[in-house]
Amino acid sequence: MRGTLVETKFSTTRVVAGEPITTDNMECHLKPLLRSDYYPIEFTAEQWAALEKAFPTGVCDFSKPGVGQQPTIPWQTYQSDAEGGGVIYGGRPLGPAPAGSGEGWTSAALSGWLK
């Protein structure tokens, strides 16, 4: 393959199945298996029966947030101010940003930090 650019791409089975690239969905809501979800692939009756046996309660519905998934809370600290700086499980907000910081680069998801 002289002169041909070959690019290797890696992924996970969950991303191939439709999970966003963020891969932050630890437990998904389930939906029933529907043949139409896999168009243009056509399964034989035997293949479909094997899928139904493998996934009796359904498959991940990546169109919905994960079970218990919450939006990101920006600018957290996980270290205590106390001597020794112990861990704060779950985090603690850092408070408002210093004046003039973050201008021009903060996305809408983090805009609450500037207020």
Could you give a short description of this structure?
This protein has 115 residues and is α+β, with helices and mostly antiparallel strands.
Question: Which characteristics define this entry?
Answer:
single chain; 115 residues; alpha+beta; 2 domains; two-stranded antiparallel sheet; 13% strand
Structure description:
With 115 residues, the protein is an alpha+beta fold. The chain has two domains: 43 residues, no CATH class; 39 residues, no CATH class. Helix content is 12%, strand content 13%. It is built from two helices and four strands. The strands form two sheets. Strands 1-2 form a two-stranded antiparallel ribbon. The protein has a two-stranded antiparallel ribbon with strand order 3-4. The chain starts with 12 loop residues before the first helix and ends in a 22-residue tail after the last strand. The model has no long low-confidence stretch (mean pLDDT 80).
Count of DSSP H/I helices: 2
Counting DSSP E segments of at least 2 residues, the number of strands comes to 4
- Order of secondary-structure elements: HEHEEE
Ranges where pLDDT stays below 50 over 5 or more residues in a row are: none
Overall average pLDDT = 80
Tally of domains: 2
Helix content: 10-25%
Alpha-beta content class: alpha+beta
Strand percentage, roughly?
5-15%
Largest sheet: 2 strands, antiparallel
Distance between the termini: 55 Å
Rg of Cα set: 22 Å
Principal-axes geometry comes out as: elongated
Strand order of the largest sheet: 1-2
Secondary structure layout:
Layout: H1 13-16, E1 30-31, H2 45-54, E2 59-60, E3 76-79, E4 87-93
Antiparallel strand pairs: 1-2, 3-4
